[in-house]
């Protein structure tokens, strides 16, 4: 299993960050430009990654003010889990971490781990910009 992580500190209380992340409609604001055909509800999202694949994901687990997990609802090119964790940073803000767990073979790891890391980093930075 390949684990890709990106973390960011946000000067907002934990419940505000969690509430934003728990609604999939808000995740469109966190996506890079190569994501299009976005459609979402509070619990799921469908989108196309340019030159790659169409993905449909849904929130499979919510732990209030702690974590959210999303998994594919249709067959994906590989097993993947998208998780956000949030924790109090001790001074009124929140530490948010985006964790992508993907079951990649060696070939897929070479091809996909760079873009997946870039995606995780982009989403955490956008989260900071949107909520900052």
TrEMBL record:
<protein>
    <recommendedName>
        <fullName>Polyketide cyclase / dehydrase and lipid transport</fullName>
    </recommendedName>
</protein>
<dbReference type="InterPro" id="IPR023393">
    <property type="entry name" value="START-like_dom_sf"/>
</dbReference>
């Amino acid at each position: 299993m390949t684990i890709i992580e990106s973390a960011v500190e946000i000067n907002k209380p934990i419940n505000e960050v969690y509430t934003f992340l728990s609604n999939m409609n808000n995740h469109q604001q966190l996506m890079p430009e190569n994501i299009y055909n976005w459609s979402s509800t509070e619990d799921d999202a469908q989108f196309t990654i340019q030159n790659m694949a169409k993905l449909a994901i849904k929130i499979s687990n919510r732990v209030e003010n702690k974590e959210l997990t999303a998994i594919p609802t249709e067959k994906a090119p590989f097993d993947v889990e998208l998780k956000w964790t949030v924790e109090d940073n001790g001074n009124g803000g929140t530490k948010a971490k985006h964790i992508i767990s993907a079951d990649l073979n060696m070939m897929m790891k070479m091809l996909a781990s760079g873009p997946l890391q870039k995606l995780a980093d982009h989403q955490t930075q956008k989260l900071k910009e949107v909520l900052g």
